């Protein structure tokens, strides 16, 4: 499911890129790169959780969820920052 959402999001960004300014794209890409790094950390945390059990597994899963939420918030912030750049041009 995450892969589908990422592909859908990427397709949306590509479709919107045609009407975005270079500066807006630069800002959004910086946030997107940060979000991707957080998603990678979450994936690594989930892989580690698979090798744990009990409370340790739950803690790792919760940490992965928190990273995914932070990645989502970073993407939203990037979109808002990009919109602000576009409005100021």
Automatic annotation (TrEMBL):
Signal peptide position in this chain? 1-17
Keywords from the named record: Signal
- Show the ranges annotated as biased composition (Basic and acidic residues): 67-89
Q: Where is this region: Disordered?
A: 53-89
Compositionally biased intervals (Low complexity): 55-66
Q: What is this protein called?
A: Lipoprotein
Q: Which organism is it from?
A: Sphingobium ummariense RL-3
């Amino acid at each position: 499911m995450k892969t589908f959402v990422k592909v859908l999001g990427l397709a949306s960004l590509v479709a919107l890129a045609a009407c975005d300014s270079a500066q807006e794209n630069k800002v959004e890409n910086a946030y997107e790169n940060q979000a991707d790094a957080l998603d990678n950390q979450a994936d690594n945390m989930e892989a580690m959780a698979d090798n744990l059990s009990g409370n340790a597994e739950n803690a790792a899963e919760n940490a992965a969820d928190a990273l995914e939420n932070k990645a989502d918030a970073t993407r939203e912030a990037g979109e808002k920052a990009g919109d602000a750049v576009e409005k100021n041009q």
